[in-house]
Amino acid sequence: MSQVREHLEGHLQDMLSDVEKLVRAESPSNCKALVDACGQVVQQLFSEHLSVSAQVFTQTEAGDHLRFEYGAGERQILLIGHFDTVWDKGRLPYRIEGGRAYGPGIFDMKAGIVQAAWAVKAIRELHLPLRHRLVFFLNSDEEPGSDTSRALIENEASRSLAALVLEPSVAKSGALKTARKGVGICQVEVSGIASHAGNHHELGVSAIEEMAHQILAMQRLTDYASGSTVNVGVVEGGTRSNVVADYARAEVDFRMATQSEGERILQAVYGLTPKLQGTRISVSGGVNRPPMERSLGTLQLFETAKRVAKEELDVVLEEMAVGGGSDGNFAAAMGIPVLDGLGAVGDGPHAENEHIDIAQLPVRAALLAHLLLAL
Fold first, then answer.
1. Which terminal residue of the chain has fewer beta carbons within 10 Å of its beta carbon, N or C?
2. What pLDDT is recorded for position 114?
3. Which residues of the chain does CATH 3.30.70.360 include?
4. Longest dimension (CA), the chain
């Protein structure tokens, strides 16, 4: 057993206690007061373990974002995470069953934050050398799209050698993430002409009928071979069943593995043309997160992590590409190597069974510590 892992194994219960504190500080993205209260717990955690204070980026509506800096060196390594969750307060209780800990945001991704703090704490207490300073950027609006934190993340990434993302590993497998799809969100609105559905049906032009044509056109933009999917997930329109609808709207989600595919889909959606005379189409929205493509730099990061996992921990690491986006997508778009999925091992992100494997807390913390030392 590596010295780092042995040290962390001895503090498993302390790590789990920190996870419980952070998870019990519930932090739904849409409640600034709760997210900021959770941010205070995060600050206490970093102050206690690493003796560092946060640079707080105050927000008016979203929760405040936190930046911590540890160590010295001319260059920095960026560690990215978030402490907001998709769960409303009281929706999912914290509990322990059969070697697993359950709770809101425990897998996605509060345990990852705790593991990272303890990884650096172990390096500190064992007096091991870091060549570069570490910057932790922890935001509070990742789940709804990182609207207020994106520019801050991109600024830090532009000054970093690499970014390590503390999001959870691939569910069940523990694999790291070397590629993520980009995410796009568009709103499509159709205007038609209202009329009485019984007396003057022929005078109306249905926005719902027009939208039906456009839904089929958008769904056909899916190309599984290229890793691109388009999903019209919300549709609404009309006012009464006896009125020809003069309005309809749709919310569209699209995912793409490459920037060029994102451009193709976006161009097609913005280029939608009416099929029915008298209707008009308007489109808004665009790419929310660029794709995190599997670059040579990312591959080299993974190979380093794979090597230290085997040599120091006797763990075999795997890599995967996933469909969901993270703040690592923004860092990758800045042209730096990004390795994602360095957080907890478990399952159930955004699901009722969201949980972590407790025994893996010190193992994954040790993996991150050895990766930082190797870099």
1. N
2. 98
3. 182-289
4. 84
291 near 258, Cβ under 8 Å?
yes
pLDDT at 294: 94
pLDDT of residue 165: 98
C-alpha dihedral over 308, 314, 319, 324, to 10 degrees? -100
Range(s) within the chain of domains with CATH label 3.40.630.10: 3-181+292-374
C-alpha to C-alpha distance for 133 and 119, rounded to whole angstroms: 14
Flag whether the pTM goes above 0.70: yes
The residue length of the chain stands at 375
Q: Which amino acid is at 356?
A: I
* CB-based burial label for 213 (10 Å; 0-12, 13-18, 19+): middle
The CATH homologous superfamily of the domain defined by 3-181+292-374: Zn peptidases (3.40.630.10)
Distance CA 276, CA 278 (A): 6
For residue 124, count CB atoms less than 10 angstroms from its CB and return exposed for 0-12, middle for 13-18, buried for 19 or more: middle
- Give the integer Cα–Cα distance in Å for 337 and 223: 27
Rounded CA gap, 185 and 47, in Å?
A: 38
Q: What is the pLDDT of residues 259-292, one digit of tens each?
A: 999 999 999 999 999 999 999 999 999 999 999 9
Phi-psi region of 98 (alpha: psi -120 to 50; beta: other; left: phi over 0): left
Residue 310 has phi, psi (to 5 degrees) of -75, -45
pLDDT in tens, 297-314: 999 999 999 999 999 999
Contact 298, 339 (CB under 8 A): yes
Top CATH class of 182-289 equals alpha beta
CA distance 92 to 101: 12
Q: Where are the beta strands (DSSP E) in 25-173?
A: 55-57, 65-70, 76-82, 95-97, 100-102, 133-139, 160-165
Encoded amino acid at 310, one letter: K
Measured at the alpha carbon of residue 101, what is the angle toward residues 98 and 102, in degrees to the nearest 5? 115
Share of the chain above pLDDT 70, in %: 100
